[in-house]
Design a protein that fits this description.
Blueprint lengths: L1 H43 L6 H7 L4 H11 L4 H19 L4 H7 L5 H12 L3 H9 L1
Helix pairs in contact: 1-3, 1-4, 5-6
């Protein structure tokens, strides 16, 4: 009787270990997917592609991409794109002599007014004012 109970206990612990091992591989998959998303954003953020295009290129669905991102990163895929565009725009405004419109074009905006609204919404200050603050 004791041997049978011990066998059941060992099998239960093995099954629990296998389940935990499987649970560990899911976050690894999420980490990998988010890392590939970040790399793709670095390469292509200027194209202003929809998130669905990123998911297709990564061989996953948009919902799976969002789930992986939610477990790993604090920002949505769209927010990650915007954050990268803002970083590039801020650098260009501070370290180049490009006009505000040219900065907008350089990060993928076809309309300077839309770029200005985008920048102002994310930075709480216009691109021109941001440049002036950085130069003072």
């Amino acid at each position: 009787m004791d041997a049978a109970l011990l066998t059941i206990l060992v099998e239960a612990l093995r099954a629990l270990g296998a389940m935990q091992g499987g649970a560990r591989s899911v976050p690894d998959h999420h980490h990998s997917l988010v890392a590939r998303l970040r790399a793709r954003i670095d390469e292509r953020f200027r194209l202003r592609e929809p998130i669905a295009d990123y998911a297709d290129a990564l061989g996953t669905s948009e919902s799976r991409l969002c789930v992986a991102r939610a477990r790993i990163a604090p920002l949505s895929p769209a927010a990650m794109l915007d954050q990268h565009a803002m970083l590039d725009a801020k650098r260009a405004l501070l370290y180049t002599n490009l006009s505000v419109a040219e900065v907008g074009y350089s990060i993928g905006f076809s309309d300077p007014a839309y770029f200005t609204r985008f920048f102002t919404r994310h930075a709480d200050v216009s691109p021109r004012a941001y440049r002036q603050m950085g130069n003072s």
